[in-house]
TrEMBL record:
This is Proteasome subunit alpha type. The lineage of its organism: Eukaryota, Viridiplantae, Streptophyta, Embryophyta, Tracheophyta. Residues 23-45 form the Proteasome alpha-type subunits domain. The proteasome is a multicatalytic proteinase complex which is characterized by its ability to cleave peptides with Arg, Phe, Tyr, Leu, and Glu adjacent to the leaving group at neutral or slightly basic pH. The proteasome has an ATP-dependent proteolytic activity. Belongs to the peptidase T1A family. Signal peptide: none annotated. It comes from Oryza glumipatula. The 20S proteasome core is composed of 28 subunits that are arranged in four stacked rings, resulting in a barrel-shaped structure. The two end rings are each formed by seven alpha subunits, and the two central rings are each formed by seven beta subunits. The 26S proteasome consists of a 20S proteasome core and two 19S regulatory subunits. The 20S proteasome core is composed of 28 subunits that are arranged in four stacked rings, resulting in a barrel-shaped structure. The two end rings are each formed by seven alpha subunits, and the two central rings are each formed by seven beta subunits. The catalytic chamber with the active sites is on the inside of the barrel.
């Protein structure tokens, strides 16, 4: 029989060699450092996809861009991380593609039910909070795992008439942003964005798009 592939894991007592049977399977179990191991795995899954995304909120628009993995045997029209939730709200999922599609479908159902019940459209802020609440619930039960996705929710708030940009992570945290990033190069992109947005510039639609393109075009 072939030997099981070993991996190095870190626990409260230090590092040790571990086989597949030693992987953490309980979401509600804290490590000695006070961390939920399954959440660490979910955040690692976001980076494992190898795709970096960026979103920038301007004065009158929001732009989001992401890399796309190319495969000559795939039809590119069937591969996307960008989903339309309503006619004024979109979602960009960075991480595991299957989880991204699941979140997008749940968000569409939630937005439709909200409009049917209350008679007006869900705002980007409400949708971001709904997704974050769902993500947080998935950290409480052992029979389900957290989504390995960071979601960017963007759109125009009908009441305020202003663009909005939010991120929701696997832990159930959601934040409003002037600019945001997710993926393996998140730190480098965020450092660039902090320098670019430090002076609180007025960003027109063209300038907002230019900032996103400039960032993702860098090697």
């Amino acid at each position: 029989m072939p030997e099981a592939e070993a991996a190095a894991v870190v626990t409260g007592g230090g590092s040790r060699a571990a086989g597949p049977a030693d992987y953490e399977r309980f979401i509600t179990l804290f490590s000695p450092e006070g961390r939920l191991c399954q959440l660490d795995y979910a955040f690692n899954a976001v980076k494992l996809a190898g795709i970096t995304s960026v979103g920038v909120r301007g004065d009158d628009s929001v732009y989001v861009l992401t890399h796309r993995k190319e495969d000559k045997l795939h039809d590119p029209t069937t591969i996307t991380n960008l989903f339309a939730i309503t006619d004024r709200i979109g979602l960009l999922a960075t991480g595991m593609p299957g989880d991204g599609r699941a979140i997008a479908q749940e968000a569409r159902n939630a937005a439709a039910e909200f409009r049917f019940k209350w008679g007006y459209k869900m705002s980007p802020c409400m949708l971001a909070q709904w997704i974050a609440d769902r993500a947080q619930i998935r950290t409480q039960h052992a029979q389900i795992r957290p989504y390995g996705v960071v979601s960017m929710i963007f759109g125009i708030d009908e009441e305020k008439g202003t663009p909005e940009l939010f991120t929701c992570d696997p832990a159930g945290q959601f934040f409003a942003h002037k600019a945001a990033s997710a993926g393996p190069k998140e730190k480098e992109v965020m450092n660039f964005l902090e320098e670019r947005m430090k002076s609180k510039p007025s960003l027109s639609s063209g300038t907002t798009k230019g900032v996103c393109v400039t960032i993702l075009s860098k090697p």
